[in-house]
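Hi,

Apologies if this is the wrong queue. I'm a grad student, and the batch job for RND superfamily putative drug exporter from Micromonospora taraxaci produced an output file that my downstream script rejects. I'm not sure whether the problem is my script or the file. Here is the sequence I used:
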Amino acid sequence: MSGRGGRATLVAVAVVLAWLVIGGVAGPYAGRLSEVATNDNAAFLPTDAEATRAQDLAGQFVDRATIPALVVYERPSGITDADRQRVSADAARFAQVPGVVTPLPPPIPSEDGQALQVVVPVDDAEGDEIGTVVEQLRDITGGDRDGLTVDVSGPAGLLADLIEVFSAIDGPLLLVTLVVVLIILLVVYRSPVLWIFPLLAAGMSYALASVFVYLLADADVLKLNGQAQGILTVLVFGAGTDYALLLIARYREELHRHDRPWAAMRAAWKGAAPAIIASGGTVIVSLLCLLLSSLNSNRALGPVAAIGIAATLLVMLTFLPALLVLGGRWAFWPRRPREDQVDPRLEHGIWSRIAGFVARHARPIWLSTAVVLALLTLGLTQLGATTLGQSDLFTQRVDSVDGQEVISRHYPAGTGSPATIFTTEQTARQVAQVAQGVRGVADVRPLSAGPQTGPPNPNAAPKVVDGRVQLEATLTDPPDSDGAERTIRELRVAVHQVPGSDAVVGGFTAINVDTSDAAKRDQNVIIPVVLVVIAVILALLLRALLAPVLLIATVLLSFAATLGLCALLFRHVFDFPGVDSSFPLFAFVFLVALGIDYNIFLMSRVREESVRRGTRAGVLAGLAVTGGVITSAGIVLAATFSALAVLPLVVLVELGTAVAIGVLIDTIVVRSLLVPALAYDIGPKIWWPGRLSRANGEREARDAG
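Support response: The file is valid. Your script probably expects a header line. Output copied below for reference.
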């Protein structure tokens, strides 16, 4: 026995040392993910989207593709000569900034005389370095002075503010996540030692995932954006801690039955690993369903998050067990488990009482909880998926939002970010006339052949490339508003009807329109596929058909209730204008995949106990022994996703809030009451058509007789 124990200890030491070496190599990459991230919406559009085709055509009309920064100066009492001199001096300095494409067009005065606007084209090839260019522009302007306000807005200003927000992921978000997990682990374990093991394993998982994501993004195999990077952080730490809690709880249980830690771990691993692997596999496959998305951003998030879960599974099933074996019973100090063969249900007094309550009132419990969740779904009427406007994108004031509001007060709101129309030379005049007649279009001008040295001339000769002409349509609404999107849709209908025009409409607003349309298409395609995949996995795991159907139904009900509750909170508490078009799909993938996780943890143990005790007794035993650990896991995951609220971006705050609320509903209501009560009420038929259904049915019939 001692020889086997010695070999087991040596293996554990070797595994820990190997992982520490891997961690030393992979660790630095965790702080370098921002280097390979891109946050340009256009880079994620489908290749067949009209805005994408317009972007390709736009590249033929310029030597270098640009993204405009709009520097707007405002003095409510009227622009002075000194102001004009300052603007001219600033413009001359703008032209010297690396990344700015010259010559700059002259400043554009507003009709009311209260504002001046300078359009600064920034080389699109700068990528995320556009943020650095915009920062230099803001440094040059020097901010507000002597009653003259200055803001740098436009698409480049917005992108720069987004890049600054996502730069917080490498530091504050990771720190907040670590602190949240640490505090919860201390509360759960009440041990000054044990929290180290899951937290160290979660950190190792994040390092391993980071190196793979970095290398794949650097090689352009996948695209990484700030949103995916933030989700990767909280998902790895949240899911990793969940898996650790499950394994540690089973290890503690087995330490009561075995005298040697390595023997207890072997039994714990055999008991917990199938559920952990099934849980992680379900999440991975669900995330990989995002590869069916038409949006490159969604297709990127799927593999990025799946890599995070795969790395977490590998670490939690190798590194963490080795650490726990080396820690032995001392890891649980001061509440060290003894080998006393105690029934594990006796250690879970509260959950044993809850199981008894479920047994006495099974049908009223599942009916009442189902009704409450169904009532919460009524809040879905308040959930209006849309594309969030620039002023609605952030939870705090930023320069690009202030600048857009100034532009909206003094200019046609779409100035500086026009819709672009590409059409044949022969139909250009007719297309321009039709476009001018569309409600919401302020002005239509052709891109002229020569350099622009003064105000735009509508009679200038248009530039012709391969028989095509580019028209620029200035919109009356801000480029990221619902009004501008309606205008783009109407504009496309109008110009497409011009015979022989072969018109293509693009630009900043068109990108938002096509992104929103692609997101709706993705929901209709991906959600059914995810449900089918999860059903197959559950059927294989539980060797039944009825149980998977009921579990998926409860998770869908929980998902709908969560969205309904969130819709009420977002509108009436947080005062958010709506949710982004990508929100329902992301919320579904994470809530359904993670919600099924807890049902897998519960029902896999219920099935194990049902084989020994019978179905109804197995339900109660499974609930008693898993209740505490699953609830703790849910609280950890909810808290880690809540950490997304530290980023001042509405879409991530909404996603973090939805996942946190949904996970708590799943763990406290669905998994603790609804599912056990439903399974208890149905009895052995829950395993239909498997053999366990017939065997337990006969056993319970004999017991009743």
